[in-house]
Amino acid sequence: SRSGALLVSAAGASAKVWRVADGAELFDLATPGGNVQAVAVSPDDSSVVTAARVATGGAPDAALVRVWSLASGTLALTTALANQVALAVEPSSGRVLSTDGNGNAALWSVITGAVTFTRAATFSPLGVSPISTRMASRTGARIEVWDTTHVIAQSASFGTSAPSCLDFSPEGARIAAVNGRDQLLVLDAATGFTLRSIAGAFRCVAFSPDGTRVVTGGSTDRSVRIWHVGSGTEDRVFTDPAISPLVSETTSDCSTGGSTVQCTCDTVCTCNTVCTCDTVTTCTCDSQGGHYWYPN
User: What does the alpha-carbon distance between residue 13 and residue 33 come to, in Å, rounded to a whole number?
Assistant: First the structure.
């Protein structure tokens, strides 16, 4: 939450609200039969938005987007938006920016669910500037900064692996983005120019409240690292010796009709959850289409 008093997490069919002071679980925001993919908290700490994939019994999974009261844990709104897989909340107005699996973004009211703006060819990750109406998202292997009228800036290409996570700095002038494989970039939000590049296989990134540092997580050694944005130097490393590092391995196991054939996979979902079979392509899969990760 913006106040820092509450924490919202997601796992399986539920998003849970926790009190930070004592770790007490306050609410279980369940979507029966679903798998919660994303959560976001409104800027006034009044609401939680969840997006959950729901199995449909043979047909492609649907996605159910719900708005919950953060004060009571009760369901306030179920939207008509389909297949939304990523969420971000606009700090100035409380509107929600979300995108579906086909790359269509929508900006909508957390109160009524009414859509006020749509944009095509916009994929997760998503971010909203804390001080303006600017938004950022992935288009291909680049980060685009845009508002409701036009694209403002575009970053250089992230190479062979698309950006997997981004965050605006507190003053809204910079964007930190990682591609999950080999680099962290700090970008000028007005021009897309690269201000800082740091090598590393990071899955997620966030700015510190004062904007002088960034935190990365999800690297292959499962560490959390703090970096100085100005110098690009590493400040601190947090590791848990009880957790094994991750290793990568290609896989072509995908059974259909009693036979094992080669596998292709979606570019945004893990191989073991979204996997289609054919007879011509071998694929290496992860949450960004790169590797299939498993504990060592």
Answer: 6
> Alpha-carbon distance 116 to 287, whole Å?
30
Q: What are the two backbone dihedrals, phi and then psi, of residue 195, each rounded to the nearest 5 degrees? A: -90, -30
- CA 265 to chain centroid, in Å, comes to 18
3-class secondary-structure state, position 140 = coil
Task: Provide the pLDDT confidence category of residue 254 given band limits of 50, 70 and 90.
Answer: very low
Eight-class DSSP state of 156: P
CA 17 – CA 23 distance, rounded (Å): 10
> b/e string for 235-246 if b means 16 or more Cβ within 10 A?
eeeeeeeeeeeb
> What DSSP character marks residue 148?
S
Least trusted range by pLDDT, from 3-7, 10-14, 36-40, 280-284: 280-284
pTM of the model: 0.66
Cβ(196)–Cβ(232) below 8 Å: yes
